[in-house]
What does this fold into?
Amino acid sequence: MNVNRLAAWGQQMRAVHQRLRDALDIARETIEDGGDPESVARDLQLYCVGFCVALTGHHSSEDARLFPLVLAERPDLAPTVAKLEQDHSMIGYLIQNLEKAVTTAQGTDALLQHLDGIEAVMETHFRFEERQLVELLDSLQIDNLDRTMLFGPIA
It folds into this structure.
């Protein structure tokens, strides 16, 4: 058994979460830097699309591939997985609202409120997920899957 390979799955989840935090920070900086609303909206479309696609892809991969592996190993974690999937749905809803705000060139305060909401739920979700799953992921032997299949396009 290759311990480095096994430990990498839990660390990979943490690394993906950090990249998503960094992407959110870039989107926030774009808004806070100001400028005319159309310019901010244009920049945000670039950064938000990247962030939104990455976060949505991460959650879709977890729902489709990672969570079934977790449940196969630990069926007792079904309530935990259900909570994580519920969070994914809530974050998806918040992302849709942010995307609407960006495409309609809402003001700085409104855009920051959307990001604040996403960040609050995302951060709580990431911490819970890491507490619940990293140790398990570090113990799993997962063969024939690459990181993007388990963690999405930002892996």
